[in-house]
């Protein structure tokens, strides 16, 4: 199980990257950090700089065919930057087109809205995204974790770092054959 973690060069909420990463690795999977630029990404603890992490692949060099699933960590700046990058948006949309599972937490569903993949789906997010999700044709609900199978693939979403335990459990259950 090879899992892409798509993040912008700056602004990822560190714990929303590292906790799912560790869960995938502990389940025997191979997490790969994919970004819109090579080098290292700068993670954050809310608004404060945290650690940096090496990028394994840039989005323009990554192929959805090489991955079994996608994780979209949150942070406010991370998905806001990703949704402005056509390559990142296309990469996300390709997971839906190929029926592969996707997991997104906190503000990450902004990228799903931009990829036009929430229509007819039920999901959760940080509460400030609920209007964006509804305007994009999705159904927003306030739950720790939502596993939506209403479309071509399974979409797992959570609201915030406090939901990481059930989020990681759900994504490992879905990603593990």
Our estimate of the beta-strand percent is: 25-35%
State the fourth-level CATH superfamily.
Class I glutamine amidotransferase (GATase) domain
Low-confidence stretches: none
Q: What number is the mean pLDDT?
A: 97
Topology:
Blueprint: E1 2-7, E2 10-13, H1 14-26, E3 30-35, E4 40-45, E5 48-54, E6 57-58, E7 69-72, H2 77-82, H3 86-97, E8 102-105, H4 109-114, E9 122-123, H5 130-135, E10 139-140, E11 145-148, E12 155-158, H6 164-175
Parallel strand pairs: 1-3, 1-7, 2-4, 3-6, 7-8, 8-12, 9-10
Antiparallel strand pairs: 4-5, 11-12
Helix pairs in contact: 1-6
What can you tell me about this protein's structure?
The chain has 6 helices and 12 strands. α1 crosses α6. The chain has one domain (2-175): 3-Layer(aba) Sandwich (Rossmann fold), CATH 3.40.50.880. The model has no long low-confidence stretch (mean pLDDT 97). The protein has 177 residues and is α/β, with parallel strands linked by helices.
Short overview:
With 177 residues, the chain is an alpha/beta fold. The chain has a single domain, classed as 3-Layer(aba) Sandwich (Rossmann fold).
